[in-house]
Amino acid sequence: MPNVRIRLPRTTLSVRALRRPVPPGQLQRRATPAILALPLVALVAASCMPQPVTPQGREIEHLYNIVFAIALAIFVFVEALIVYAVLRYRRRPSDTSLPVQTHGNNLLEIVWTVVPTVIVVVLFVLSWQTLNSIEKVSAQTDVRIRAVAQRYQWSFEYLSPDGQQVLFTQLAPEMSIPVGTTVHLSLRSPDVIHAFYVPRFLFKRDVVPGVENVFEFSVDEDDAGQSFRGQCAELCGEFHGAMVFTVKALTQADYQAWLQGQIDRASATPAPGGGPGQTTLLISALNIAFDKADLTAPAGQPFTIEFRNDDAGIPHNVEIKDAGGTSVFQGEIFNGTDTRLYAIPALGAGNYTFICTAHPNMTGTLAVQ
Question: Which of 47, 170, 187, 331 has a CB 3.0–4.6 Å from the CB of 207, allowing a cystine?
Answer without folding.
Answer: 187
